[in-house]
Amino acid sequence: MDFFKRHFLVALFAVLGLVVVAYVGAQANLQILFGVIVPYLAALIFLEGLVYRLIQWARSPVPFRIPTTAGQNRSLPWIKRDLGEQLDNPATFKHLVGRMALEVLAFRSLFRNLRTELRKDPDNPEGARLIHWSYKWLWLGAIAFHYAFLVVILRHLRFFTEPVPLPIQLLEHVDGFFQFFVPAVYLSGVILVVAVLYLLARRLTNPNLRYISLAADYFPLLLILGIGISGILMRYVYKVDIIAVKELALGLATFHPVVPAGIGPIFYVHLFLVSVLFAYFPFSKLMHAPGVFLSPSRNMVANNRWVLHVNPWNYPVKFHHYDEYEDRFREAMIEADIPVEKES
Amino acid sequence: MDDKIKNEFGVFAERPQVEKKFYGAKYIFGGLIIFLILVFLPLAPNLGKTIPAPERKLDTPVIQKLAAKDRKCVMPTEWMRANHMQMLVDWRDNVVRSDEKGAPNIREFVTPDGRKFLASLTNTCLDCHSNKAQFCDQCHNYVAVVPNCFGCHLQEGKKLAEVK
């Protein structure tokens, strides 16, 4: 089996296996395991793993000032810098915050030229031309996916709070604005699944990407796809007793876990996949969520030209000064007629 | 030559003495604390409490009057819990969007066990379940669902229908 198939199929069968495990578990009356123990365990692993990784990160020094300078740096007063350049090459903390906000909230880096390709050159039909350009569809897919996921997570707060806070109700209202189908279709759910499918299709269809994609790249995508599909099926097709679901969720949130009877197995499939996602989070590429704040090339003020940054672990260097050199070789130097500063 | 190599950095350099401490702890752990606060903020008000499940009251005058064997809904309770909204919308679509002359029994709903009902929220459902606040609203509020049925089908609406 070739490299791509091995990595894709391992991830695919892992997700399908998880679905089967949860389904069989729900059928075998293991509701307490899949409804209470596994979610708590997953939350614990998530929190512990997150703290562990953050401690690891905090212990790693970043000795060099290495911001990417993606615009005109602060220079002579008559060299103009517009706001874009101030944000892409921040000279002050204020602009640094702006740069990080753009990065975190608008995925600025993804909007840049990421693509390097050899293209046919009309001026030079024999050869090819190397061009750099952007992947705007990737940016769109990524930002749609992330914001849809955020809305989906916030919407789920209606199961963990009682009474449901007004902002969450408003969000739900806006999300189901078009009121088609019963129950009303949430746009965020549709966007989430479509965006994940696009990101997956992009990995699969682009040969360069397929070549560098590993099981660890496919698994989170397929897992989130599984979560989205199971959630949508649960809401629109295989309906479950939503009151019992909320009782279970509130029980988890208030640390008084209860397992109401009569929740369909699809709920346990959904919950198990979410639990796996949480437990998997700290040990995977998904840690880019906290990690984006620690990108050394983005979170530093580009002030190298006017602030001296000293590597904190510079050791004291033994200098051999000229005086010492002359003291050592004076006689030999005089003998060879080399001028010396002191005669004796 | 090999014996002259001091360490992995070569012949001249000392191994860097990296201080063992947290770098940027203020930002990293500050961020962690902000994240944890954001997560627990919505959950905090109910932490440690036991939230009672909603109670659906069935003791309306009409249901009380029914004989014990007739005290059942048009469909089984489990099915109704998951699908009542779909049934009501189907009823509405039948009445509003079908040609009533062509299909005279459009307002008739026949249950799987053969009982016949008028397919109407106001006249059938709300007849037995006349206690909207103690029945419908209980669950709808619990899971923050706002059905738009009651925009028109007010409980007072029934009286209007009877007058006509």
Mean pLDDT of chain B: 80
Order the strands across the largest sheet of chain B as they lie in space.
Answer: 1-2
User: What's the gyration radius of chain B in Å?
Assistant: 33 Å
* Basic shape of chain B: elongated
In brief:
The complex is a heterodimer of chains A (344) and B (164). Chain A is mainly α and 344 residues long. Chain A has helices at residues 3-27, 31-59, 83-88, 93-106, 136-155, 166-175, 187-205, 207-212, 215-236, 242-253, 265-280, 288-291, 322-335, and strands at 113-120, 128-134.
What does this structure look like?
The complex is a heterodimer of chains A (344) and B (164). Chain A has 13 helices and two strands. Chain A has helices spanning 3-27, 31-59, 83-88, 93-106, 136-155, 166-175, 187-205, 207-212, 215-236, 242-253, 265-280, 288-291, 322-335, and strands at 113-120, 128-134. Chain B folds into two domains: 2-46, no CATH class; 61-163, no CATH class. Chain B is built from six helices and two strands. In chain B, β1 (108-110) and β2 (116-118) form a beta hairpin. Chain B is mostly helical and 164 residues long. Chain B has helices spanning 25-40, 61-65, 77-97, 121-128, 136-142, 157-163; strands at 108-110, 116-118. The longest helix of chain B is centred in the middle third of the chain and has 21 residues, at 77-97. At the A-B interface, α2, α6 and α10 of A face α1, α3 and α5 of B.
Key descriptive features of the protein:
heterodimer; A: 344 residues; mainly alpha; Fumarate Reductase Cytochrome B subunit; 2 strands; B: 164 residues; 2 domains; two-stranded antiparallel sheet; 6 helices
